[in-house]
Amino acid sequence: MQLPSDPAHPVRRIARSKVNLFLHVTGRRGDGYHLLHSLAVFPDIADGVEVRAQASSIAVAMRGPFAAELSDVAAPDNLVARAARALAATAGVHAGASITIDKHLPVAAGIGGGSADAAATLWALTELWGLTQTEAELQAIGLGIGADLPVCVASRSSIMTGVGEGVSPAPALPRLPLVLVRPAARLATVAVFQERARMNAPFRAAAELPARLRDVAEVAAFLRGTHNDLEPAARTLAPAIGAAVAAIAATGALLARMSGSGPTCFGLYESDDRAAQAARTIAAAHAEWWVCATAVAASGAMT
Question: What residues act catalytically?
Answer without folding.
Answer: 18, 148
